[in-house]
Structure prediction request, 583 residues.
Amino acid sequence: MADTSKSNSNTNSTWQKCFDGIPIRDGYAVGPVQKHITSLPVSENKSTTQPDLEIKRFNEALESAHQDLKELVEQLNTEDEQQKIFQAHILMIQDPVLKKNVINRIKKEFVTAESAWLSVMHDFQQMWEKAGKGSSMENRSSDIVDVGIRVLRILQNETIIVPKYDQKVILVTKELTASDAMSLDSSHFLAVLSERGNDTSHSAILIRSRGIPAVFGLKDIVENTSEEQILAVDAINGKVYTGCSESFITDFQVNIEDFEQYQSDQSKDINSETKLPSGEKVSLLANVSSVDQIESALKHGASGVGLFRTEFLYTNRSTPPSLSDQIEIYKKAISLMDGRKIVFRTGDFGGDKPIPYLKFPKEDNPFLGLRGIRFSMREMQLLDVQLKALLTASEIGSVSIMFPMVSTVDEVHQILDLVHEIRIELELNGIKVGKIDLGVMIEVPSAAIQIKEILELVDFVSIGTNDLIQYVMAADRTQTELTSIVSGFQPSALRLVKYVIECANEANKSVSICGELAGDHRFTGLLVAFGLREFSMSADRIPAIKHEISIAHTDLISKLLTGLDTCKTANHVKILLERSGSV
Prediction:
């Protein structure tokens, strides 16, 4: 992997300022700035003497926006993740509370449809951001902006014009909406830089699909750059350099050439086995959210599915999926895997993944409330149907079932008892149940601390580093201001991950990581050193991680293990990995 730190090894005078952000899509770029500011205009409260006519205009605009979004969703029928983003926009437009508030404002205040719509959407945006403080809901405010602008353009009879550029540019924005991301043409943009957003935001998902290098969470990048200014972007390490000298740019161009060669080399051995230099095999699995994504994962070289997020089967609908619907979906997934490993995670509801038709309690901090298995145990009928579907589907192939957000040994006992009861019930009804492996996610510190007791009960564990790190550090991973705290470089978090891996290996139980750490090339050597031999990640990260594993020599592993023991701060860990060539 190319290393931009070499470009600035002689003197700091070769660039004026370096911005640190969140890597969204790998790549390097050098080019001129093109700013793009997307926000809801301020409502001017224009009056009207014909409120009924304004209400009619508003209803027609909503219907037109609905039809536009339906057509867009139909065009994305092979891109399930992208579909869900714009299906969520449809649900927002159909929200009866939103519609009622706009109509009431037109009637009571005698304002135009545009004025009422903007006023209500600003209120909704503020409400989402306030309610989402401490959760990824705050990042979803970009969806409010997106839908708000879409309806406003229809009311004002404006046509969406995709800007054309005479040269390739680096797009700089305060916040990228999903519609903006969908309209970007990779032939026109070298990179995308945004002040807001993180790696789980809707625009991030779409940017990855466009293949454009991107960095989000770049504080004040808009204010500190100007049109046509030349920037150097390292989207692998989340760095953006301004005020670059000619010598810096010349050196940086080498990174671009090296990365292009690196990508070319990756594509050649995508279907080969993943092995350490010692010859030991390592499994690279994919995280998926639908059956449609399995085929893509296998094309990227995945040897199986380490995380099938079943909660997405419950979204964008008014009722839970039926038993027969779930059996059909799970059987299709198992069939596509053709004997390869597949791990289904039961519904991870709550937190930043509420389901409209399920009754969630009002919580001040949903991330510390009824999440994952806690919610499922309360809504037992929901879990009962899902487990019956998974066990029934196992008749055509072996299945692994994983339970999220387990905190105590008591919860593990309850889960195992429930599965046992359902298995007996199905078999008494003549339904053959195949091979089932049961595991839990280790994403709560209490579960990591009691890992030895948990391993006595389950067949496997999978470490969810996203949540584990934020709970260890008592800091929300979706807040840009806390990025350095909720970092994989934190020694306390890494030592807990190491402890879980070592305990699982000693117990001869399968252990994997399915959080972002598994797909981050900077940590691959260290995780291998910990003893991890099963990684699960976004499918597009598999080629890069395969390369890192192929160069993780024994002497490197030894140096990383010894070095970590002496690291006292996140910066110490970063320096250790930089010296090893991982960062």
Q: What stands out?
A: The chain has three domains: 4-36+163-245, 51-155, 278-580. The two ends are 8 Å apart (CA to CA). The chain has a mean pLDDT of 86. The first helix runs from residue 51 to 75.
